[in-house]
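Checked the freezer inventory, then went back to the computational side. Two predictions to log before the end of the day. The first one is the construct we discussed on Monday; recording sequence and tokens without edits.
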Amino acid sequence: MKKLKSEARGIDLVFYCPKENHYSFNALAGALEKNPAGAPRLLFAENKAEFLKTAGALPRKGRAAVLAFSFFTSQKNDIRVLLEKLPSPKSRNFTLIAGGAHPSGAPGETLAMGFDYVFQGEGEISLPEFLKSLSEGTPPKEKIIKGKPLSCLDTYPPVSLKWGRFGPLEITRGCPFACAYCQTSFLFGVKPRHRGLENTLHYVRLMNGRGLRYVRFITPDAFAYGSADGRKINLEAVKGLLEGTRAIIKDRGALFFGSFPSEVRPEHVTKETLALTRRFADNKRLVIGAQSASPRVLKAIHRGHSADDIYNAVELCAKYGFGADVDFIFGLPGETEKDIEETFSFILQILPSGARIHAHTFMPLPGTPFENKKPAPLTKKTEKFIRDLSARGQAFGQWEKQRAVNT
């Protein structure tokens, strides 16, 4: 990488944002809109061809160029291949930066992929500061830049009006359960931080005013919105969010709650939360995190709920007119034949209630207690079980792609 000259006055910042990564860049664009340090000009490349074409036209005279990536562990091989199509480090005249789930958990590995800087954790504060240092010709000496957690999500917008980047609104960061396979608690902490009701509704109104009337939320557990500890339901907060959103969009749009890109914990599926969701939301299905039906495995991965909680959640969903898409992870470390048989039997019990299985293969994610654990091998019986369900429309998911990342 060539050293940036001190007279650089502005930044051309290219976000490589395929569909899987839109949400991260929407929030970062909003942060830069609020705090435009370094006077960035943002460019959004939606696919590999567009990204390479955009990168090839940079830098412009008198400006520094930065190419930014945010990616998951499941994407790291694709990102590595894309980087190989860029000029070699010695001939580059741009800066490569990376953030997101995988770089945050494995900064050293990410630097070794060819990145110049890696951002760990939240980027709303650290990215503008970094761009300001580049614009002043004084890039940081540290290659790993640790993010500063937001004490209040209301400080930064979840979308960008200036650059027209809209999508699901992030309403909660952090999770108290610290499941051994999951990065959420280890990236964002165990104390939930919620976007305030009025702040959330403000952005619902803004989007509604621009004709964007489909509302979704990003949260580890939709039914835990407003909860002080993320464990005890704050029913009034949930009601305020749903009722307030519906009052804005009325019947001209749709409100999705407890479905992609969020989910709900099974023990938080109650008559009260389902009644509110049925009254105000439009989705006919809920995403429920289960991961296993083996009591031994649930305890080992620190899920904090029982198999009975999952069963009761699915049954309650059916009574209130919801189908349940239930997440299961196959190949969890230490999973035995007995454990998987318990899960198979359980799945067959909940299918008649309208459940579908969202199948995953365990991937060791960096920064988690299971980061160095090997997946339990998926037997032919397990593969056949998932494929048979999929053929009947009772299962779906990227489990095969996830397994390929492990090899």
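The second is the one RB wanted added to the comparison set:
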Amino acid sequence: TFQRVLLMTDGTVTDVLEVYAGEAIRVVILDQRFEDPSSDPPELNAEGAERLLHRTVLLQGAISGTNFIHAESVIAPDRLPSEILEGLLETGRPIGRLLNQGRIETFREIVGVGYEPAGDCAAYFGIETTANLVSRTYRIHVAQRPVMRITEKFPTTWFSQVVEL
């Protein structure tokens, strides 16, 4: 049930994870770089010479060090207010929290849900490379324009246990 909540939520995943894990969630930035629009996912409709920010992170338990989610984002940074972009580049704050803090009205659109082999992500979760990950991809729209495409992944065995309250 909790896996379905993570896959279908249109809210901030970090908040949902914190409730589940019973601990704060921190962002561990694995990679963050600007690229030209030739790497544009079609979901963002990059225009002309518009640059894109590629960001790969882990959502990790601040106390346990458990990697809960691996996330890859492609962001059209010039479509964001400068304070949001600065927050992405200069802090470890989650995207959803930065948008909320900036009071940015958003719409999240799920564009895909599925399974895939863990591959290179396996090491983050301590699983075999052939183990399956559950993934979801969604777009975040700001002012009716797609601004981000985010893919979040976690092992199929994660979040399957019942938590006592």
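For RB: Strands lie at 25-35, 52-61, 67-75, 106-117, 132-142, 145-155. Residues 88 and 95 are 7 Å apart (CA to CA). Let me know if you want it refolded.
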